[in-house]
Amino acid sequence: MNKIQVILIVFAIIIAIVGVFVFSRTSNPDTTSPGTTDGKLVVWGTIPRSTELTRILSEYQSSEARTKIEYRAVDPRIFDRTVIDALATGEGPDVVIADIDWIRGNRDKLQQAPTSFTTLEYQNVFVDLAVSEFIENILLDDRRTRKDFIWAMPLWVDPLVMYWNKDLFNGANVALPPSDWTQLKSASNAIKIVSQGGLVERAGISFGRSRNVPNFKDIMTLLLVQQGKDIENSLFNLVVRPFSEENSIVRLYTDFGRIGSPTYTWNNNLPSPRDAFANGALGIMFDNLSYETELRAKNPHLSFGIAPTPQIEKASLPIYTANIVGIAVPITSEEKLPAWLFAKWLSDPEQASRIIESFSVAPARRDLLEIEDVSDFIKSITLNSKRTQESFPQETEVILGEAIESITNGQQTISEALEDAGLKFRNLR
Length: 429
Prior knowledge:
Layout: H1 3-26, E1 40-45, H2 51-62, E2 68-73, H3 79-88, E3 95-99, H4 100-105, H5 119-125, H6 128-134, E4 135-139, E5 146-150, E6 153-165, H7 166-171, H8 181-191, E7 193-194, E8 200-205, H9 216-225, H10 231-238, H11 249-254, H12 273-278, E9 282-288, H13 292-298, E10 304-307, E11 322-328, H14 336-346, H15 349-359, H16 366-369, H17 376-383, H18 393-408, H19 414-426
Parallel strand pairs: 1-2, 1-3, 8-9
Antiparallel strand pairs: 3-11, 4-5, 6-9, 6-10, 6-11, 7-8
C-alpha cells in the first residue's frame, strides 16, 4: 500500500468520524446539552438592561452554546401590545421574559418545554408558586389522558410587602406594623388626617381605589388567596350564589376609598402611592419588594420599614402573594430548542443568583433560598406565596377595576357592581 492510499484511507476515516459526531448532535433535538447551535437568539423582556444583565448575556455567547443573545428591553406599559403585534407579523422574539399575568394570558402563543424538562425536577428545584403558575395539567384530545405542560422557566419572585413610614407611626403612637387586617384598619385610622368634607390631608394607606392604586389587583389577590378563593371563580359564581356585602373582601377594600366610611383615607385626587409615600404623606403602602432600591434613591432620608403583609387573625399558616417573572418561548420562534436551552441556563443557580442580587428580588429556586444572605423574612414570604388561578388576567383586572370604581364613586352597591362584573366575566368564557 503506497503513501497516497494510506492518506486517502486516513482521510476517509476522519470524515466518517466527523459525520457520526455531527449526526449525533443533530438527530436528537430534545436534549439539554447547550452545544446545539452557533447562532443568535432575540430576547425581549420587561426588565431594564443593567450592567450585570449585559455581562451575563454576553457570557452565554462565550459558553459552550456559542449563541449570541440580542436583548431588547420593552417598556412594561406597552409590552403586551408590542409583543403581540410582533408575534402576529412573524417578527417577534425567540424568547420572552415577562411576568406571570402575561405568560398565563398568552399561553396559546407559547411553546411548551421539551419533554427532557421533567415536571418532577421542576417541582424539586423551584418554589410552589412557580410550579402552580407555570405548569398546567391538560386533558389531551383522547379525553382519557392528562399531561403536564411547562410554559416557562422561573427567573425570580417579587413578593408583595408592606412599606410603613416609621415617623408617621411614631407620631400616631403606633409602635409596630400591623400583622392582621383589624390592626391595619386601626393603624391607618390613627395616621390619617381627613377633613369633615372628605379632603385627605394625610393618608393612612393607599387602599380602596383602582384608578390610582396601580397594584390594586395584587392586593385583591392577597385578600382572596388568604380565604382560599380566586378572582375568576368568585366572579363566575357571583351570578348564581347569594352574596353577603357586610363581611366581604370587596367591602374591606373599597371602604378605604369610600367617603363616609369609618376607614376612608384614599381618593383619586391624591398622587400615586409611590409619590405620596416617598414624600412622607402616606403611612402604609403595599408594593413589591423590588421597589425598595428605587424608594431609597427617591428619598434617602425617609425613615421606613418593610414588613410582611397582614394575615387573617389566628390563621394557622401565613399566606402571601407575589409576582413571578419567567422565561418563555413563543410558538413562532424558529429556534425553539436553543431558546429553551437558554431559558434553562439563565434560570440555573449561578446566573439566577446574580440577576436576583442585581434587581433586589427573591429567588424562585429553593436552593438559593437556603444561602446565608437570604433572610427568614424573604424565605417565609417566598415559600408561602400564592396567586389566584386565572385564564384571562388582563381582562379580569379591567373588569374588577371598573367594579371597584363604581362602588367607591357611589354609582352602584357592592352587590350590583359585582353582579355586573360577573356577567362581563362570563362573556369571556
